[in-house]
């Protein structure tokens, strides 16, 4: 004897469609919130402002986030996911060592230069929440520390590959690289200094000149030569000033021999982080 299908067997399909629609609506709200926060800061976010931008009711927006604080934390996480995709994961295509460390910095510079008009949530969030303990500050600190951990590990990998001298202090290199980014953001966004981008590139070359080994310089120069078509300039942090410094680094190592593998390392740099 066969039994009839239960009356509610199609409910999971309807529930799936409803879930997908809910996720799409949430993504739309979050995208609008990210745009607002980039221009107005995390403190500029409100359920009412998002309702106006998305043409939704306040109750509809509230249903997806529950509170302003939850909305701010969701925006921080979304920003970090986009930052990872544009800066971190794309740099993993480069071979470990100096080429990857340079790629991380140059993509970081490129991201910062794009944000001159909109603003960086990491930087603006630090100003807004530096002395305000709570979940939003904790989320910001956690994301920035994750990124610093990625840079620091790339520095350590460069040392393991023989591209940076063993006595180099990874925390000092990280500090100086981060300092260049903060200076770039300040001078380009606040002072509107036209030379800020080039100075960031020159700053990186000076760091590498201080700590790179001959083998590291040669590998870095060879990788950049493969990536740069004839007649074109350098990458994201390049400028005429940056080119002269970069050529100086490369030319001083023509007799050195590289000891690192050119195969990209696909393993994540940030520990215990999921992509996206």
UniProtKB/TrEMBL annotation:
<keyword id="KW-0805">Transcription regulation</keyword>
<dbReference type="InterPro" id="IPR036271">
    <property type="entry name" value="Tet_transcr_reg_TetR-rel_C_sf"/>
</dbReference>
<keyword id="KW-0238">DNA-binding</keyword>
<feature type="region of interest" description="Disordered">
    <location>
        <begin position="213"/>
        <end position="276"/>
    </location>
</feature>
<dbReference type="InterPro" id="IPR001647">
    <property type="entry name" value="HTH_TetR"/>
</dbReference>
<keyword id="KW-0804">Transcription</keyword>
<dbReference type="Pfam" id="PF00440">
    <property type="entry name" value="TetR_N"/>
</dbReference>
<feature type="region of interest" description="Disordered">
    <location>
        <begin position="1"/>
        <end position="21"/>
    </location>
</feature>
<feature type="compositionally biased region" description="Low complexity">
    <location>
        <begin position="237"/>
        <end position="262"/>
    </location>
</feature>
<dbReference type="InterPro" id="IPR011075">
    <property type="entry name" value="TetR_C"/>
</dbReference>
<feature type="DNA-binding region" description="H-T-H motif">
    <location>
        <begin position="46"/>
        <end position="65"/>
    </location>
</feature>
<protein>
    <submittedName>
        <fullName>TetR/AcrR family transcriptional regulator</fullName>
    </submittedName>
</protein>
<dbReference type="Pfam" id="PF16925">
    <property type="entry name" value="TetR_C_13"/>
</dbReference>
<feature type="domain" description="HTH tetR-type">
    <location>
        <begin position="23"/>
        <end position="83"/>
    </location>
</feature>
<dbReference type="InterPro" id="IPR009057">
    <property type="entry name" value="Homeodomain-like_sf"/>
</dbReference>
């Amino acid at each position: 004897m066969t039994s009839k299908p239960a009356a509610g067997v199609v409910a999971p399909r309807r529930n799936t469609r409803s879930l997908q629609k809910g996720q799409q609506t949430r993504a739309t709200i979050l995208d609008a919130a990210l745009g607002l926060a980039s221009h107005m800061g995390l403190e500029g976010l409100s359920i009412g402002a998002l309702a106006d931008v998305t043409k939704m009711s306040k109750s509809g927006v509230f249903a997806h986030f529950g509170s302003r604080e939850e909305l701010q934390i969701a925006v921080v996480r979304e920003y970090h996911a986009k930052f990872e995709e544009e800066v971190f994961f794309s740099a993993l295509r480069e071979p470990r060592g100096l080429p990857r460390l340079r790629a991380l910095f140059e993509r970081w510079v490129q991201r910062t230069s794009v944000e001159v008009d909109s603003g960086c949530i990491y930087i603006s969030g630090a100003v807004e929440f530096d002395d305000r303990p709570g979940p939003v500050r904790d989320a910001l600190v956690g994301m920035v520390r994750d990124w610093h951990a990625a840079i620091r590990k790339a520095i350590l990998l460069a040392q393991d590959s023989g591209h940076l001298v063993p006595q180099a202090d990874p925390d000092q290199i990280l500090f100086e690289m981060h300092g260049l980014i903060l200076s770039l953001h300040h001078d380009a966004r606040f002072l509107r200094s036209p030379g800020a981008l080039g100075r960031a590139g020159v700053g990186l070359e000076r760091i590498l000149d201080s700590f790179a080994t001959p083998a590291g310089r040669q590998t870095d120069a060879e990788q950049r030569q493969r990536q740069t078509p004839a007649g074109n300039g350098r990458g994201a942090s390049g400028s005429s000033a940056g080119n002269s410094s970069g050529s100086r680094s490369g030319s001083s190592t023509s007799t050195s021999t590289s000891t690192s593998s050119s195969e990209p390392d696909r393993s994540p740099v940030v520990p215990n982080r999921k992509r996206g």
